[in-house]
Protein 1
Amino acid sequence: MLMYVLLIVGFFLLVKGADFFVEGASSVAKLLGVPSVVIGLTIVAMGTSAPEASVSINAALSGSNEIAVSNVVGSNIFNLLVVVGACSAIRPFALDKDLLHRDFPVNIGASIILFLLVMLLGKISRAAGIVFLVLIMSYIAYLVIGALKNREKGEEVKALSPLLSIVYIAGGLCAVIFGGDMVKNNACLIAESWGWSENLIALTIIAVGTSLPELVTSIAAARKGDSGLALGNVVGSNIFNIFLILGLSGTISPITTDTEAVINCAVVLGVTAAMFAYCLVKKKMGRISGFVCLGAYVAYTTYLLLV
């Protein structure tokens, strides 16, 4: 029973820690006049990806690397189907042009690279991890430079003081780190007690738990009508999950993958490509498409539990 309590406490620390980190970092970005869609793609995406990073890096340090890949894959699928689906079901939204033509293709490219690595090489080597880190740093630099060139001037924003922002960021990161360690350790214990593989529990329980910040942040943004932040958070988070989280995990300890990982990476690539194709044609997400996404996730989870 204790491991279930500690798992819930770990998830609470992850969610609240990411929330504090996002609030502090977004406050700094707003003071600099950075557009909301860029905040969603960088600061908020990095903050809401912190739980996945904490769990995956802890897994890499302890040698449970299969959790790292499954957590990222499961989180990306949850983000696209549940987070985007829930946001559009609550409030349909039009798609940001830059997001559709610049950032979504990067997301697909990241998914393709991951799929090819696990299919052809069967691993994410230390060299591949370093390349991933270089790619995510280049992507962030490109976004920030573009945002600063087109800084929004004269916008009235409500932001924390610089000192309080730093306190929020530091405190949030500490909570995320401790929460991630608790989630990883107790999820493995639960998997053993249920007779589940670490792979399966990472694709389901851990993926859902570590994606709660994306869900909460995006739904709150969608209800306020800020679709740039809602979908930008999901796309940015998925890019960060692959390049930053697997980059760090692979650099710390090379990740060996199996046939199951190839199938899971193919699923996330297919979901990402299908979502992009739909958005490219429709230029918006409506309520019906949102409910279709939610239904698809229920079907996917049912499949995982039955096979």
Protein 2
Amino acid sequence: MYVTIAAERYGNSPEYQGAELKVPATREAIQDAMERARVRSDGEYRMITFRDWPVFLKERLARTEARVQEVSFLAGLVGQMDRKRLSAYEGVLACMETERKGHECSIKDLINATVNLENFDFLPGIVKDTDLGENALDGDYVRILQDLPDEVIGLLDPAKVGAYLRHSEKGAFTREGYCFRSREGWQEIYDGQKLPETELGTKTFLSVRIEERDHPENGDVWLFLPCSSGKMTHVWDFIPSPCLSSCRITEVSSMIPAFEKHIGPDEDIGALNELAGKLEKMTSGERLKYKAVLEFDGWKSVERSLRLADRLDEYMFDPSQVSYGDYGRECLENLGVDCSDSAFERFDFYQYGMAQYETAGMKLTSYGAVSMEQGLDLSENEVQEDGLQMGGCACQTM
């Protein structure tokens, strides 16, 4: 399931599309999406699309004010449901709204309803009053009819019986069945303020799962970087080989999405350790700029990423830039041009903005505009030989 986050302050920009986030998501993934959407720390935002959600939830979420953390938590709960429980969940929400005379569920209700399905019964295939009435009459379901002769029951209108039963039970129909409360009680796991702790692990600066190349049957272990020799002791409890050169990377986790996408199984773990150490020393603002510079430069190697981390000061970064069209309009306005004039009604601000970007040596990344203050020569080998050594059998202290 996915949500698209959009900053309110860019609501008038026709090219602005926000940032899509796969949920449930870690805290770092949510932060990355906020950065891509250009949502300031104290800025307002909304979720404008909900892709691959069940239709009944998508419709409600689109009309509900919620924080992305709440929606992410809900996605984790919904993702664990099979088709049967998902249908019952839709029925519970419909019952709640019937009890409240049409008032839609809040995000708090949507979350808490996931753990209260057992307080309701769901009858699949019963989608209208006639179905409900026939089901009740055939099963002798309605207590008030128990003392009536069969010949009298046979004269009753199933639709009226179903309507009576639905109103008395405060039940509700969905597209797949009928739901009604069968027992009292309501459990709350969310008070509307503090979300319960989730099981999703938080992302570190850079972590790699490693296994022995020749003996993968021995299992694998996570290596959390940056790592000193003292922290490596536990790794050899799981991997008998004392040499990192005999290991390969099977999975990568990082608060820098480009690393998860591009780091391969045969990367030098010593270089990765050094890179994680640089990330650890960066401020949050520097890490944001680093992500933008990585995208600007285009992924080439871990070694080049190391050099970029040392030369962030040689790049210009403007996280407020969201589209070529907006930039083109901004450039003209800075020249004193009134872009609201009718003469600019059909003017292509997008193409003009792209041309200005190219002239200035800028590129629009997912995180904002990036350009170089001066030409950089990153071809030289500047990787230092400290940190974990992939080719050796020991781990030097950082």
